[in-house]
Amino acid sequence: MGIPTPHNAAKKGDIAKTVLMPGDPLRAKFIAETYLENPVCFNTVRNMFGYTGTYKGKEISVMGGGMGIPSIGIYSYELFHFYDVDSIIRIGSAGGLSSDIKVRDVVIAMGASTNSNYANQFKLPGTFAPIADYGLLRKAVEVAEERGIKTVVGNVLSSDTFYDDNAEANDLWKKMNVLCVEMEAAGLYMNAARAGKKALCILTISDHIYTGEALPAEERQNTFREMMEIALEL
Length: 234
Known about the structure:
A five-stranded mixed beta barrel has the order 5-8-7-6-9, surrounded by four helices. A hairpin with a 2-residue loop joins strand 3 (50-55) and strand 4 (58-63). It has helices spanning 25-35, 69-82, 134-147, 169-175, 185-195, 217-232, and strands at 18-22, 37-43, 50-55, 58-63, 87-96, 106-114, 151-158, 180-182, 198-208. It is α/β, with parallel strands linked by helices. One of its GO terms (cellular component) is cytosol. The active site is at residue 207.
């Protein structure tokens, strides 16, 4: 397949080597307009907005990835394989599972467990462990420490189901010390591994499944800024 693709109207050279990827395309628009200098929109197909600009003199792109592994699977595959992107940093929200984390904490996904069948396409003779790029992960932790932002590093769950028919599912993942649940990281990490590229997922705990605590809209925006600023520094 050539470019533009059925999902991305960008042409060669329109997208930077590093792409920040929130799930929500409107959050991509917010990041571009708030943090990037001279942002240029390269994609509006399916309203999955993408922008390229500069941050502290370095070219960077930001683009929505949608909800779930099938969606981020398409966008990250095309970025890695057709647009010569080297690194994708997912920034998103997550629901807390572990008793060791609280709402507003920033979680860096060292690994991403999943109930998805996405890895089946690779026909591996065993179970694949989707993990982050260590260089990006290490730098993210360093940036957070410099800024005094609390981070928790560990395993997250990338779930295909937001409404799970198995009422015990969360308890079982929590028992294995999975920190939180989101819906995309594992697919992104698998695509990066297959392409020989880099990926990292940084999450903000927006609600906790067991305590019932949740951030109101305004506080979500302010807390998410910390996660965005860590990602931009990478």
